[in-house]
Amino acid sequence: MAETRSCEFGISGMKRAAAADSFEVDDEIFVAKKSMLPTLAVAPAAWENDPAASLAGLRHEFGEHGGINMSIEASATFTVMEPETMRRMFTGELGPDRDFFIYSRHFNPTVLNLGRQVAALEGTEAAYCTASGMAAISSVMLQLCSSGGHVVASATLYGGTHALLTHFLPRTCNITTTFVDITDHEAVKNAIVEGRTKVLFFESISNPTLTVANIPELSKLAHDKGTMVVVDNTFSPMVLSPARLGADVVVHSISKFISGGADVIAGAVCGPASLLNSMMDLHQGALMLLGPTMNAKVAFELSERIPHLGLRMKEHCRRALEYATRMKKLGIRVVYPGLEDHPQHHLLKSMANKGYGFGGLLCVDMESEEKANRLMHHLQNSSQFGLIAVSLGYYETLMSCSGSSTSSELNSEEKALAGISPGLVRMSIGYTGTLEQKWSQFERAISRMEVDSTLFNKN
């Protein structure tokens, strides 16, 4: 791909003059305010301590008139002062690294600022924010794989991702996928065909079974065979940092925990600047040509939420651990990586960023869909413990029976391979009200259910 045809994620010490298409040397203050850098700009020592330190080390983007919040650049297209400048922009000679913008499908200043924040959060060189999580995943897969390409993926994935790999990519692009138990490293190794397998794809904490992937070992295994590692970290922002642990690319559905409001759809691709540049190539870039563009107004809203993501994640995780512990004592079959009897508890503990807990989701296995539905009915309609809805990361608890909802794209055999029980209830634990208040609501719902000796299986 021609490097000169990309709008690069780079570092610039120049600024665009206010009334002309020329440059003058910046002073340090102006660079801190105006340069468009989606790259991580924080000392490695700070990042090693805490992802929040990385975010705090990122420069602050001020508003056009000195506001403490950045301005929203809502323009779809951008002017130049001289016609020759536009030619130079389209050849890649001038770009957003020097404060030159063509069209917001390519780059937008507000969206670029959000990209800087997400890159800092994940500890990657760059990030590009998209209109949805699926847009991020599909763009990465189409960039890294060509016709005839091969992917090895976890058998337990979000239903939409599974459908993309199982049905859409083979039909439209001749890209095939082998699904494996991601905890069986020998099976993963045997599935990767050196020279042909382009991507190893898995979720850091799987949807919905909450299986934790050994990111360092899987990354080493894939890299030994020349395969890139793409990790969906939607379930565990702040908790896990896959790029630090060896992954090449990290993708997110920002709609979930990072947003926290269940009011926007958004995604992100985080990785090396070279990859993001290739994805923005005018002739060959998946992001450039497929156009999964994030709206600048959405980017502004999200950029205001990331600074308190760490606080929110700590409370999601604190309550999830407390509820899981209490549910277990009641004899409920609960799955949560923070419990010591979870198969990957110690693995997650060894990989996790300190102080953020073990994730904000837990699962209750009611064995049958009928029992799962009865439980959710009482939790929503009898006691107001939570809401029956898909998605996660909201400030209220959200509940769904995964097999008949977010994993419904999988057939019965695929669900069995993924370990998804028909009665598996996924709960995204919220933080509204007091912990004791919400727990009393949970107990009240349980008491309203029919007395049934088979309802709960003692561990």
From TrEMBL:
Alphabetized Gene3D superfamilies for the sequence: Aspartate Aminotransferase, domain 1, Type I PLP-dependent aspartate aminotransferase-like (Major domain)
Tree of life domain: Eukaryota
N6-(pyridoxal phosphate)lysine: residues carrying this PTM: 256
Xref: InterPro entries: Cys/Met-Metab_PyrdxlP-dep_enz, PyrdxlP-dep_Trfase, PyrdxlP-dep_Trfase_major, PyrdxlP-dep_Trfase_small
GO cellular component: cytoplasm
One Pfam family matching this protein: Cys_Met_Meta_PP
GO annotation terms (biological process): methionine metabolic process; transsulfuration
Coiled-coil region list: none
Single Gene Ontology MF annotation: pyridoxal phosphate binding
Keywords, ordered alphabetically: Pyridoxal phosphate
Cofactors that this protein relies on: pyridoxal 5'-phosphate
Keyword DNA-binding in record: no
Family: Belongs to the trans-sulfuration enzymes family.
The protein's name in its UniProt record: Methionine gamma-lyase
